[in-house]
């Protein structure tokens, strides 16, 4: 609090020497990293460029003009992926949390809820996502039930929510169970009820702890949102497919791939950052 | 009349009978200290009183009310008892102030600003007013212990249960906590304390209770129990401790 004791501190000669040493070492590391990167890039470029098949590969996959042409359609498709992803993510968090809480409830009244939550997570973690998408996306509209929507995108999204909420439920449950029992005891001994203990003591700690694996699941959701393309929904992948069908040039697929990677990178970095701040990665690790 | 009384209390974990036909009385405003070998059941006794464990038999009554009755409102009973555990058990995601105000705001429905003012008063009393916004992991062991005491005190409990609250502290801090407890006792707060530190027990206790094989083998004022124990087992235990302390 008081800064008077700190303000007149100057690093000693020894400390200044240490600081200078650390700076020299950091500069050296940067130099080595730069040189080695350039060497690797040159070797790879020369190696690939000199193979006999390269011109054909370049024309089929990396045609800049064709890619530029396909970009608007593919990007428009990606906007659908983003919207699907965002809506699904909200539903997944809510349902996943509800399932996790159901599984941790004690007492005989909640037996059916516990069994339901356990069965749900077992089933949807086991079923391949593509299978669920086929079942819902083609199966349900075929029933022609009144009052149910028949847009493919809704059923594709529902499949994503069903599958991912079972993963997220398990992540939350692991977090809830990782909070030490003495924390519950301390809360209960203050007079907090079971629900208050869960809400004010257990869940805040649990969520903080599982944030990195949770964000990881959402990185995965971002790209799996592309799977709804199989239902004929015009998302980025389907748009690229249609473009490709015009002239059998695969560059639009590469464009879609680049867009997906660009979309996931911020979230991956955020995950790394959150994990590092929580000390998930011990020491080590270079400056990237 | 005694504030807390145990009659024939039994608690077993499987075949391990920890408390066996246990009787104890804690008078209002007095301080009873439990001593005994590690594993003799001191912490278990406190957990039973706080209803964190269900007794297998017997009656615990607080203010004449049977709190071991399964129909009793456990949350309400707990909120009238202050507990400080062997390890601190502060909530790591909350600041010291929020740790202290959690129960007043959520359980006792005190208005936030009132709760804060009262919490700051109590924190000031335990010497932690300047740490109100710190997180528990930014505090020293003694500071965490005092924060935990403040958290228990803020609800103005009729009874405080304190489990080895000085075991992680250096002698100077032990003195501080001791002063604090003496203060609390002069306020008329009833205390039931477990400890391995005989000097501390001698300082603060009105009655000392020696636990052996799940029973209160000997109960008496500290001068008598430490100076002239009746039971050979008590004598043995005390001399073993004195040897260890050199
Ligand atoms: N949750 C539990 N499940 C099973 N056994 C337990 C449990 N809690 C305590 N025990 C057992 O009960 C006995 C008494 O434990 P307790 O914690 O009450 O001892 P203590 O007197 O507080 O010891 P210490 O002085 O080391 O803190 C021990 O033998 C212990 O192994
Ligand atoms: Mg103990």
UniProtKB/TrEMBL annotation, chain A:
The chain crosses the membrane at residues 31-50, 78-102, 123-143, 250-268. It is a multi-pass membrane protein. It comes from the Bacteria. InterPro entries: AA_ABC_transptr_permease_3TM, ArtM/GltK/GlnP/TcyL/YhdX-like, MetI-like, MetI-like_sf. Keywords: Amino-acid transport, Cell membrane, Membrane, Transmembrane, Transmembrane helix, Transport. One of its GO terms (cellular component) is ATP-binding cassette (ABC) transporter complex. Residues 78-271 form the ABC transmembrane type-1 domain. One of its GO terms (molecular function) is transmembrane transporter activity. GO terms for biological process: amino acid transport. It is found in: Cell membrane. Belongs to the binding-protein-dependent transport system permease family. HisMQ subfamily. This is Polar amino acid transport system permease protein. It comes from Kribbella antiqua.
From TrEMBL, chain B:
InterPro entries: AAA+_ATPase, ABC_ATPase_HisP-typ, ABC_transporter-like_ATP-bd, ABC_transporter-like_CS, MetN_ABC_transporter-like, P-loop_NTPase. Gene3D superfamilies: P-loop containing nucleotide triphosphate hydrolases. It is found in: Cell membrane. Signal peptide: none annotated. SUPFAM superfamilies: P-loop containing nucleoside triphosphate hydrolases. One of its GO terms (molecular function) is ATP binding. Residues 4-238 form the ABC transporter domain. It holds the Pfam family ABC_tran. It is a peripheral membrane protein. Keywords: Amino-acid transport, ATP-binding, Cell membrane, Membrane, Nucleotide-binding, Transport. This is Polar amino acid transport system ATP-binding protein.
């Amino acid at each position: 609090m008081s800064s008077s004791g700190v303000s007149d501190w100057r690093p000693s000669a020894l400390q200044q020497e240490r600081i200078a040493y650390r700076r020299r070492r950091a500069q050296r590391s940067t130099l080595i990293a730069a040189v080695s990167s350039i060497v690797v890039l040159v070797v790879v470029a020369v190696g690939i460029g000199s193979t006999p098949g390269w011109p054909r590969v370049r024309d089929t996959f990396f045609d800049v003009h064709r890619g530029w042409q396909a970009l608007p359609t593919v990007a428009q498709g990606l906007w659908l992926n983003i919207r699907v992803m965002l809506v699904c993510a909200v539903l997944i968090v809510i349902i996943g949390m509800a399932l996790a809480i159901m599984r941790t409830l004690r007492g005989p009244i909640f037996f059916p809820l516990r069994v339901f939550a356990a069965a749900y997570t077992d089933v949807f973690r086991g079923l391949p996502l593509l299978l669920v998408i086929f079942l819902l996306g083609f199966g349900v509209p075929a029933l022609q039930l009144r009052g149910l929507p028949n847009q493919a995108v809704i059923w594709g999204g529902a499949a994503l929510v069903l599958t991912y909420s079972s993963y997220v439920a398990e992540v939350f449950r692991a977090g809830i169970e990782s909070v030490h029992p003495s924390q519950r005891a301390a809360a209960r001994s203050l007079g907090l009820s079971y629900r208050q203990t869960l809400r004010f003591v257990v869940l805040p700690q649990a969520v903080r702890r599982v944030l990195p694996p949770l964000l990881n699941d959402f990185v995965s959701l971002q790209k799996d949102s592309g799977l709804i393309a199989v239902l004929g929904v015009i998302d980025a992948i389907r748009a690229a497919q249609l473009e490709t069908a015009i002239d059998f040039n695969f560059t639009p697929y590469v464009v879609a791939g680049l867009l997906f990677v660009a979309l996931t990178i911020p979230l991956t970095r955020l995950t790394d950052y959150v994990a590092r701040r929580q000390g998930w990665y011990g020491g080590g690790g270079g400056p990237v | 009349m005694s504030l807390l009384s145990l009659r024939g209390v039994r608690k077993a974990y499987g075949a391990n009978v920890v408390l066996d036909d246990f009787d104890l009385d804690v008078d209002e405003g007095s301080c009873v200290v439990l001593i005994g070998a590690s594993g003799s059941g001191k912490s278990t006794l406190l957990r039973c009183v706080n209803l964190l464990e269900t007794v297998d038999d017997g009656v615990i009554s607080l203010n004449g009310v049977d709190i071991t009755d399964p129909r009793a409102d456990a949350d309400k009973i707990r909120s009238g008892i202050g507990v400080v555990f062997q390890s601190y058990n502060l909530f790591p995601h909350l600041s010291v102030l929020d740790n202290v105000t959690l129960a007043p705001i959520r359980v006792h429905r005190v208005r936030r600003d009132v709760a804060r003012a009262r919490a700051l008063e109590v924190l000031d009393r335990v010497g932690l007013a300047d740490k109100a916004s710190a997180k528990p992991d930014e505090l020293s062991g003694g500071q965490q212990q005092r924060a935990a005491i403040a958290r228990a005190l803020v609800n103005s409990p009729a009874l405080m249960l304190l489990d080895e609250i000085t075991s992680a502290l250096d002698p100077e801090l032990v003195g501080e906590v001791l002063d604090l407890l003496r203060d609390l006792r002069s306020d008329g707060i009833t205390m039931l304390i477990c400890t391995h530190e005989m000097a501390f027990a001698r300082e603060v206790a009105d009655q000392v209770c020696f636990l052996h094989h799940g029973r209160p083998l000997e109960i008496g004022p500290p001068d008598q129990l430490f100076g002239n124990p009746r039971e050979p087992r008590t004598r043995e235990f005390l001399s073993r401790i004195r040897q260890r302390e050199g």
